[in-house]
UniProtKB/TrEMBL annotation:
Residues 15-71 form the Glyoxalase-like domain. It comes from Blastococcus jejuensis. This is Glyoxalase-like domain-containing protein. Pfam families: Glyoxalase_6. Transmembrane segments: none annotated. InterPro entries: Glyas_Bleomycin-R_OHBP_Dase, Glyoxalase_6. CDD domains: VOC (cd06587).
Length: 82
């Protein structure tokens, strides 16, 4: 009997970090990781990757930004998968 493979309902596109200044954080991580800015939407959403079209790490403006306090469940998530 052949195994049935379920269809994929989604795909992981990128990891997103909430922050107060997406351009600054994207520039920092881009330099460290050897990536380039592939998308910048008015500085509120910035995506870096190794090649054009590759969207590997994104930075999203959070306003107001609340710094993480681990392991306080009362604060919103600041990293999520899209």
């Amino acid at each position: 009997m052949a195994e049935t493979i379920e269809p994929v309902i989604g795909r992981l596109e990128k990891t997103v970090l909430d922050c107060p200044d997406p351009r600054a954080l994207a520039a920092f991580y881009g330099e460290i990781l050897g990536m380039r800015i592939n998308e910048d939407t008015d500085g509120a959403w910035v995506v870096i990757g190794r090649e054009p079209g590759m969207r590997e790490l994104a930075f999203q403006k959070a306003d107001p930004y609340v710094p993480p306090r681990w392991p306080d469940a009362g604060h919103p998530p600041q990293e999520h998968l899209d």
